Amino acid sequence: MSAPSRPLRSHQRSLSELVASLARGEASGVSDILAAVTPGGGKSLLPVIAASRLIAAGLVDRVVWVVPRDSLRLQAEEAFADPAWRAALGHALSVRAADNSPDPSRGLSGYVTTYQAVAAAPALHLAEMRRHRTLLVVDEVHHLPALADGDRGGEAAKSEAAAWSQALLPLFRAARLRLLLSGTLERADGRRILWLPYRTENGAPVPDIEAPGWAVIGYSRAEALAEKAVLPVNFGALDGEASWLEGGRTSGQARVGPHRLSGPGPSATTRPALFTALRTGFARDLLREAFFATRRLRAERRRKRGLAAGDAVRGLGKLLVVAPDQASAQSYHAMIQAWMPEEQARRDVRIATSAEADAHAALAAFRLTPEPAVLVTVAMAYEGLDAPEVAVVAALTHIRSRPWLEQMIARATRVDPHAGDYADQHALIFHPDDPLFARFRARIETEQATATRPRKRPTGAASPEPRPPAQTDDGIVPLESNALGLRYALLRPGPSVAMAREEARHAAEPTLVPPSRIERALRARVAAMVTAQAVEDEAELRVRPGAPLPHRYNAVLKRLFDNKSRAAMTLEELEAALAWLERNRLQDHLHLLDGDTRYAWSVRRRWAGAERRPG
User: Fold this and answer.
1) Are the C-beta atoms of residues 224 and 230 closer than 8 Å to each other?
2) ω into residue 4 within 30 of 0, thus cis?
3) Residue 460 has what pLDDT?
4) N or C end: fewer C-beta atoms under 10 angstroms in the chain?
């Protein structure tokens, strides 16, 4: 059955029309396209639109898509592999999630890499850009600070972001066309963004959308709500009070508080109170509100669909917990698991931080499978995480930068195609009721011309939860905090954007299989077949003296396929290797290693390593 097509949003149509003009030679002066799309508005399709049209027109040969984190590479692959968009756009392009090994495209239409990978091997990626006419896509370009003339080897070059900018700048220059994507065109440190043109307005630099050679595509929150591309947001603001110790070790420490989180305007106690609240009893209370709201939502959706309690299906709604640090994330993870039966806790709750070995697997499972239903993270899921089933966010973070908060709430504003009608969905964000978050929320309300409708629901004060004193970098020792009351404010589109739109969403779509996942599966099958032949031949004593048989067989297979290792093979070469192994025996081709100096050298290194290892 063919995949159902989807309608393009206004910014996607604008880009499609622009690249069509480029293909016809009507916009030949455009070399840079800036897409400023509200978080959650669907900018991940823009590289697919641009690449499919421009490659078909012969203006570029390949696409190179650079993302800020490794966890986003697979999502970029999926955007090209999505069968519904392949049908809608009529393209057959594939890209692969590449590391810094040679030939990153492997015969496909391009590759996806990360800022970090480019910084680690800039020459490799620059050579690829120069070898082919390339469409360079830079995702979340606001992560890259502009480099002043003195920055290239000076103090600014010591920062990771500056190193990214230095490595990527030659790629910008070598690209045939550039598509720059961002959910927010500002940096928290106030610096300009790499490559963007600026002009001065009221004494401050602002991006110059009229600069020659540039085409700018915008998509605001109001436009996204009008087209029902994002969900309205319901904020659950939890107030509380906190107490802490303050002062140096030599002069002694004094108890401060209790202070209300929702004090009148930002003050000297706002951030210490928030710091304390996120690490003591208040955090437990907010987490409990979010957890049970998610459980009620899932139970209601099960009831409407006539599902049993244990049925694992898509579209029931998930909870994303954003913690202030890794220690708190581990504490929150343990709390949630304690509220569930042991078996369900193992199945439904995952943690993804840089300290966890399986963080990427946890993120992938959270995105792509019905379970787990709860993910605890710190910053890995702030930006770009494409998990439309997230319906509830527990915002237990002290970051109050507007770009960060916009990215965080956008994790829950994506429309879930498995959850029914648009009218039945909304994002629910639980957060501390501090004046800094209230200021952010007021700006969002003003921008999208919304009206808040507060509804108070008093809750009983939770008992304080003392914690062992531990000196923090902020110079305070959190003591205790408790929740006082919860109030809701629903942000909706105003009358100007309350337009009737097509609401049907297709819940059942073919499973996406990105190239890198296919590669991993094929490499595993090739390894299994080589090992199977080695085990069989050793059992039948058909072994010639020398290195261990699996090592010899792997070397034979490499010689049979142009001295390419499995890690360097394309999809077609891996499939050819599997087909060959199904019809032939590696034992019959051991003569290929006779007199092979490279193989003899690898054997000597292997045996030397074995002798150095104990036991």
Assistant:
1) yes
2) no
3) 38
4) C
Report if residue 35 sits inside a domain. yes
Each residue of 155-185: b (16+ CB within 10 Å) or e? ebeeeebbbbbbbbbbbbebbbbbbbbbbbb
Tokens of 422: 């648009």
| Contacts for 344 with CB less than 8 Å, ≥ 6 apart | none
Query: How far is Cα 222 from Cα 194, in angstroms, rounded to an integer?
Result: 27
Q: Global pTM?
A: 0.74
SS3 414: strand
Nearest-angstrom CA–CA distance, 417 and 412: 13
What order do you get walking across the sheet with 134-138 strand by strand?
96-97, 110-114, 62-67, 134-138, 177-182, 32-37, 214-219
Q: Are strands 233-246 and 476-491 parallel, antiparallel or unpaired?
A: antiparallel
Half-sphere exposure of 559 (CA within 13 A, CB side): 18
**Confidence tier at 581 by pLDDT (50, 70, 90):** confident
- The whole-number pLDDT of residue 332 equals 96
Place of tokens 């020398």: 546
Q: Which domain holds residue 27?
A: 10-219
Q: Is the predicted pLDDT of residue 240 greater than 60, yes or no?
A: yes
Highest mean pLDDT among 171-180, 371-380, 476-485: 171-180
Please check whether residue 393 is in contact with residue 430, taking contact to mean a CB–CB distance below 8 angstroms: yes
Residue 373 one-letter amino acid: A
- Is residue 540 assigned to a domain? yes
Q: Residues 533, 474: one domain?
A: no
Enumerate the β-bridge partners of residue 351.
376
Whether 215 and 364 map to the same domain: the answer is no
pLDDT number for residue 28? 83
What does the pLDDT read at residue 611?
Answer: 44
- pLDDT of amino acid 130: 95
Beta-carbon count within 10 A of 597 CB: 7
Residues 240 and 162 in one domain: no
Claim to verify: residue 56 and residue 88 sit in the same structural domain: yes
Q: What is the pLDDT of residue 303?
A: 92
* Distance in angstroms (rounded) separating the CA atoms of residues 46 and 31: 16
Q: How far is CA 208 from the centre of its chain?
A: 28
Instruction: Point out the domain boundary residue: 440, 470, 497.
Output: 497
- Shortest CA distance to 333 belongs to which of 273, 325, 299? 325
**Do 331 and 287 belong together in one domain?**
yes
Instruction: Dump pLDDT digits (tens) for 259-276.
Output: 999 887 777 788 889 999
* Long-range Cβ contact pairs of 578-584 (< 8 A, separation 24 or more): 578/522, 578/525, 578/526, 578/529, 581/526, 581/529, 581/530, 581/533, 581/557, 582/529
**Within-domain flag for 506:** no
Q: Are residues 160 and 250 part of one domain?
A: no
